Amino acid sequence: MLGAIADDFTGATDLAIMLRRNGHRVAVAIEDHDPGERVRAGLDALVIALKSRTAPVAEAVAATRAAHERLLDWGARRVYVKYCSTFDSTDEGNIGPVLDAVADRAGAERVVVVPSLPANGRTVHEGLLHVNGQLLEHSPLRHHPLTPMTRSRVADLLRPQTRHEVAELHLDVVRSGRDALRAALDATAARYVVVDAVDDADLAVIGAAVAGDAVVSGGSGLALGLPDPHGDTDGWTAPASGRRAVLCGSASTATRRQVADAAGRAQPVLRVDPVAAVRTPDLEVDRIAAWAVQQPADSTPVIHTTADAADLVPEVDGLPAAPAVETVLAGVARRLVVSGVRHLLVAGGETSGAVVRALGVGVLRVGPEIAPGICWAAAAAATGGDGDDGGHEVALALKSGNFGPDDLFTSAWDRLA
Ligand SMILES: Nc1ncnc2c1ncn2[C@@H]1O[C@H](COP(=O)(O)OP(=O)(O)O)[C@@H](O)[C@H]1O
Ligand SMILES: O=C(O)[C@@H](O)C(=O)COP(=O)(O)O
């Protein structure tokens, strides 16, 4: 079995889709949840979803180490460390410290670093990460609320995060084919090697060249290069029908466009007040949940946080607003499920982590792909409390802030039909 550790929940489903597309029978385990021996026995790949991308370094490393041990116990022979295709991190981490911990434990002398995800416009060329043709540092990721990306050379982003050497291999080597790339990798003394990839064919070459590596790392794109022969990935059924809703904690430009598009199609839209989220979170949850149940049953209420950059509130009364906003959206998610919402689309990696935790979900069963990097997944929500017994089957789509077409909030439901 291939074991994978993803540093956020949208990233976990993104990777699971790629593995599924490539013939793996795959499931996503939420944090320290054990899917059970029977489920594990039927899998070719298991992705553990952590909420470690922006956690304090020691916490992220400890959670990753524990996840790695579980994967080893469960028979994983290879480990895939999944981070963001835009390399979301700071000079402190968490990509470097997490890679160091996994590579040390596995005794891996070399780990490739492959953030490219061409299907979503993320490419690495001559060591520089581009997002839809722009250098990372000139893309909207420069203004990310938690991990602003102000440099574009992947090696320069990783170096401050690790004590190990970081090298680069460029497209000319990749395009010389699997054997030439493997030879070049073997000739490199560095622990980490950033490998260029501009299209899916490059990812296939890299995947083939690292077929024997105990640890690989990247965005989800590298999974396209790791085929599994089983190819038997059916067995997904959509959970019972019910009301729909969208929860957006992402401030990304793609999400903002999707909110505006839904509003333009006459879907009801409400914005979380970050000041209220910090000062009176329970009242803010009540306000939003009460609004949502009043909307027409056949509508898709969209609850969001940021219409334009001016809405971003770093602090309120000296307290950070971002985690308070996440907590409010997580509280709203519970209330929505209790009130009959069964199909929930969540935008934002951190936000998805907070929502999935609040819903008490243990395993995501990966279903149909909606758009590159976005899928529906089935899960049992253990809402319990709030006047509810819990145990509802729900369909969740966890969307990276930057992914998806403008009409996603109205078109995503077609894939559940
Ligand atoms: N208006 C706002 N003020 C303060 N924090 C916000 C606001 N809107 C969103 N946030 C926070 O920004 C973060 C967005 O991260 P995330 O959910 O991972 O989205 P993305 O996938 O776009 O990175 C979350 O912690 C969220 O609570
Ligand atoms: O690799 C990617 O781009 C995604 O899988 C991902 O991790 C996105 O993170 P968020 O934008 O924070 O959801």
TrEMBL record:
It catalyses: 3-dehydro-D-erythronate + ATP = 3-dehydro-4-O-phospho-D-erythronate + ADP + H(+); 3-dehydro-L-erythronate + ATP = 3-dehydro-4-O-phospho-L-erythronate + ADP + H(+). This is 3-oxo-tetronate kinase. Residues 245-409 form the Four-carbon acid sugar kinase nucleotide binding domain. Residues 2-225 form the Four-carbon acid sugar kinase N-terminal domain. Belongs to the four-carbon acid sugar kinase family. It holds the Pfam family SBD_N. One of its GO terms (molecular function) is kinase activity. Catalyzes the ATP-dependent phosphorylation of 3-oxo-tetronate to 3-oxo-tetronate 4-phosphate.
